[in-house]
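2 proteins. here.
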Amino acid sequence: MGRGRAPVLSPMDALPPELSHFTLPDLVGVLLLLGVWIGMTLLIENAPRRWPSTSNLMADYRREWMVQFVDRDPRIFDSQVIGQLRQGTSFFASATLIAIGGALALLGDLERVIGLAGDLSAGQRPIIVWEVKILLIVLFLVNGFLKFVWSNRLFGYCAVLMGAVPNQPDHPAALPRARKAAEINITAARGFNRGLRALYCALAATAWLLGAYALITAATITALVLLRREFASASRAVLMQPDTAENHTQT
């Protein structure tokens, strides 16, 4: 009459059969990396005012740039800066597109990937495991590519708005249009920074080829690098310095 106990199911038992080859550390690593990707974006773009991120500090300087742009004559310097910003986004978009092609090519030559990764990690895994790992890299690369392309287009919009700013500083439309250009410029920079963070996560995702614990380590290092560059870098310390004559003299 006795009944046996029901088997205790782990979180990995709920996965489809194709994904049952992944372990709990694999799931933890993927969730951690996705958390870094999303969480860092939210933290950096919505940092508290008492401890702003480098990106937020630069946004204030971009607004000030457009205010000074109204009175500058000639405006060749400003057009050169916008052109360089667009070249930067074009370069990263092109490089990311090449990386996407390379990652997709790996899907057609998994035997070589399995052989290389097998030499560096223990155990044999089915092909679907390697496909999922590479597709995670492709996910971040595609997101980065789209962000770079959109950022490039927004910098183009900003250039058009800057060209629409009247040459007379006292013109009633001069400052409002310059402020519009500043906000578009900030939005473009935000997209560019998101693209860079996607590339960081794509690099971290490649560590998954070596195993779950390598992915967890890479995701943690990526989070620390992003935190340092946005909240504890030397460039941020420079931006936080007050704009006073005394400060420049000491520097």
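next one coming up
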Amino acid sequence: MTEKTLPAFYQKPRPIHAEQDANLALAETANYLFAASSNSVPLVAAEFTLACKHFPILFADGDKPLPVALLGLRSEENLFVDAEGKWQAGYVPAYVRRYPFIFMENADKSEYTLCIDEAAPGLVDDGERRLFNDGKPTELLDNALAFCRDYQGHHAFTSEFVEALAKAELLVDNRADVSLATGQKLSLAGFKVIDEAKFNQLPSEEFLRWRERGWLHLVYCHFISMSNWASLIDLTAEQGKN
């Protein structure tokens, strides 16, 4: 896998091995500085209910649109990570909490392997939060495996939801042009939103099918999340004063 295709945050992901990682541990004082330059992160559908209270939920443009939490109006700026690496919102997206662990597919995409980013700043030797004890996975590693497995399952459901949006032609290109009180103008493009008017015109049978699939709730969470644009603008202006 080349660097260009690596998921956000991950620089050197590799499979975890008991022998190689016998002394590997996570630092006691972990922080989120690794996410400080990401102005968006992927979301899975199960997070929409909590994420919509804090961030705009958008759909990153591409061959397969991806739901994301918008964290900043400028590229490489995350408004929710402070200088000490503390997260400044009431909810931390699962994609962020999963790091430095990740599931990665084999060549024929038939199975997943638990991997770790060996370039992660939070990795140490012989710390208290070890991955292995006497060659056996610790509770920390077992929890990481369960978290990644659960995340992967939610990712499949999320992909099905987004595919339904695309098939119904409900995703439309959008852009945000923001004027701060200082007079500075910012422009954000390359994302899609759900067309509310088109959504409201879904045939009754299709609407009921979406309800049965659990997709209606996700659409409404997306609409609710749009109210967070104002908070992002305020945060951008506030941090610009510091």
